[in-house]
Specification:
alpha+beta, 37% helix, two-stranded antiparallel sheet
Length: 68
């Protein structure tokens, strides 16, 4: 219920296109305060720029994968 955190998280979907990122899906486990984003991006740098406002707010694991 942190207003700063809520504002930062709320803007991610709107800012994604500015970074050339498509958010394919978002899942949340509220009990564990865990969010999962499935995104399509051209670079790790674009993902870092998109999530920059919230990266210092907690633990983040970003795992790049490719479609096989």
């Amino acid at each position: 219920h942190d207003p700063k955190g809520q504002k930062a998280m709320a803007g991610i979907s709107e800012r994604a296109a500015d970074h050339g990122i498509t958010i394919k899906a978002r899942y949340a486990n509220r009990l564990e305060h865990t969010n999962f984003f499935i995104v399509e991006a051209t670079s790790m740098e674009a993902i870092d720029a998109l999530f920059d406002p919230v990266l210092e707010m907690g633990q983040w694991d970003i795992t790049p994968v490719i479609e096989k």
